[in-house]
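hi! just following up on the protien thing from before. the input was this:
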Amino acid sequence: MRKNLPEFTSRLSRGETIAALLYLPVHIALLPMALVLAGPSLGLNEVDLNLLSYIIGTGYMLLLLFKFLRRDFDPLLDRPGYCALEVITGYALMYIGNTVAAGLLMLVPGVAEINPNNSAVMEMASMAWGKVSAMAIFLAPIVEECMFRAGIFETLRRYNRWAAYVASVLAFSVYHVYGYAMTNSMYWIYIVQYIPVSILLCRVYERTNTIWSSIFFHMLVNWMSMNTLKMLESLM
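and the predicted 3d structure came back as:
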């Protein structure tokens, strides 16, 4: 481990770790299946189903991980400037990483310019921009950071830092494409697009010792992505 790396003090309790990890299969598979089955009887469309899923997830995390989120707010208040700088640095590095990832994808024949996840978000946003924006910018970062960074990264980092990075990055990247790749194996290639931001979300969390830095970084990324999608939609 690098000697100049700040001591990583963010820590979930045993119960909080179990709560964060248990929600992974619920959020990824069980809850979506339940909502899809209940959707017609509830009169909910695709946007409402996705929004409801993240509302439930956010409520779950705020309820069961409240003490952890409260503890991790202190490092943010202690060094707000440093945390903000790490978020900005992370975003700049992500832009470089995304450029490299886009270049690699251009070398693969038959790969579309927009990945299926972004296409799905764009389609839902055209139906209900406000709901999709609220889900992407405010709800998704809380749920996903609590699962992938607090749950997976923090837990594994206690034992092996590199295993924590690999597992968190892989899980987060696969999560965003697996549903589409199940119908078309070519979509697995889009994992490449999520690796840079996955690594940097871990880095920001690790260097600031607060999950709130990665949550705010995630919010920034999604906010910028939504603005980009809106711009692309206006050009189509």
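Residues 14-73+80-235 form one domain.
The chain has a mean pLDDT of 93.
cheers
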